[in-house]
Design goal:
Length: 388
């Protein structure tokens, strides 16, 4: 039917007119502070490889060795015959590292969030989500059939008022570190609120896990919270660990319930065993090499201090995500393009990913960056910021 072509074409035309059209980049190198694109080398400030582990020799070697042993594909879902020794070993290591009885691997963070929310919630329940939560959390809440309520960003008082007016089982869901703003949820206050109202708290720590906390345990560790405070912890493997996939950690009852009921787990081919083996080595490096977190923290401070001296409108983030607020989508695109001409790759984030009028450059720092590379970034931002 022509109607589908018309709809698709209309949306694409509208996005082009509004400077919201997105295009993929095709990299010709491994992830790292320096990448190759269309035959040219760029200084990369838009990757989530926060600890610089995506191309670490030990991680790569573990992947190659496991691929030789277990093959490239897992062959089936976990519940058929796709669950291999590296999967089991990684789940056990993640459970021990997070201080929780068990952990369960998912093929992606999106699948994990949808799976958890649609398994835990049912009609008559209440799910409360921060207004700036990741799309996967919002979609999972909507798909669950529960009464879906959003509260003002990081506003615990507003959440408390909403919870006081609601009846039925309640689940509060937040990002630990918000992916587009880079700020952190007030997890200690949220945990206290949930305990006092007999609600569960779920934290998506995709951008905090491996980076925050004294041991790299993430935003929940940084807040001093355990399984009693945060019954559901989700984190991804494709950010700080540099691999792919995600996991959910929690009680024996939670994990067994997900294995038996989460459709996103049951009906999906398992991650390749080699990815699990590589992730296990990344987790080892995370534990052994605390200097990566310390170096990254120093780079964040260096960048923020330099940006303050230049009066650049950074958003209030202490994480590896440092958004530079531009406002207009067209100007954000133009600024990103000028920086690319100077050899710096930084993504322009526009609606619908962020609210209208808040387009930004999402600058991300990595432990693989050097202080000199951060200084070059600041120099180019200073040179290009005032241009129309």
């Amino acid at each position: 039917m022509a109607i589908f072509s018309q709809r698709l074409g209309g949306v694409l035309d509208q996005r082009k007119q509004q400077d919201l059209y997105r295009q993929r980049l095709t990299l010709e190198s491994a992830q790292g502070p320096l990448i190759r694109l269309q035959g040219r080398e760029y200084l990369n400030f838009c990757s989530n490889d926060y600890l610089g582990l995506a191309a670490h020799p030990r991680v790569v070697a573990a992947f190659v060795e496991a691929a030789a042993t277990y093959g490239v594909g897992s062959g089936a879902s976990h519940l058929v015959c796709g669950h291999s020794t590296p999967h089991r070993e990684l789940e056990e290591a993640l459970a021990e590292f997070t201080g929780r009885p068990r952990a369960l691997l998912f093929s992606s963070g999106y699948a994990a969030n949808i799976g958890v929310l649609t398994t835990l919630l049912q009609r008559g329940d209440q799910v409360f989500e921060d207004r700036l939560n990741h799309a996967s959390l919002l979609d999972g809440g909507l798909y669950s059939g529960a009464r879906f309520r959003r509260f003002a960003h990081n506003d615990v008082s507003a959440l408390a008022l909403q919870m006081d007016k609601a009846d039925g089982p309640a689940l509060v869901v937040v990002d630990g570190v918000f992916s587009m703003d880079g700020d952190t949820a007030p997890l200690a206050e949220l945990a206290t609120l949930c305990v006092g109202r007999d609600a569960w708290l779920m934290v998506d720590d995709a951008h905090g896990f491996g980076v925050m906390g004294p041991n790299g345990g993430g935003s929940t560790e940084a807040a001093g919270l355990g399984v009693e405070d945060v019954p559901v912890l989700m984190a991804t493997l494709g950010k700080a660990l540099g691999t792919a996939g995600a996991f959910v950690a929690g009680s024996e009852l939670l994990i067994e319930g997900l294995i038996q009921q989460a459709r996103n787990y049951i009906y999906t081919t398992a991650l390749p065993p080699a990815v699990a083996a590589a992730s296990l080595v990344s987790l080892t490096l995370l534990r052994e090499e605390a200097w990566r977190r310390e170096h990254l923290a120093g780079l964040i401070n260096r960048f923020r201090d330099g940006a303050q001296q230049l009066a650049l409108p950074l958003m209030p983030s202490r994480s590896a995500i440092q958004p530079l607020l531009v406002g207009d989508a067209a100007r954000a695109l133009a600024l990103s393009a000028r920086l690319r001409e100077q050899g710096l790759l930084i993504g322009a984030i526009r609606p619908p990913t962020v609210p209208a009028g808040t387009s930004r450059l999402r600058i991300t720092l990595s432990a693989a960056h050097t202080p000199q590379q951060v200084d070059r970034l600041l120099e180019q931002l200073a040179h290009n910021w005032g241009q129309p």
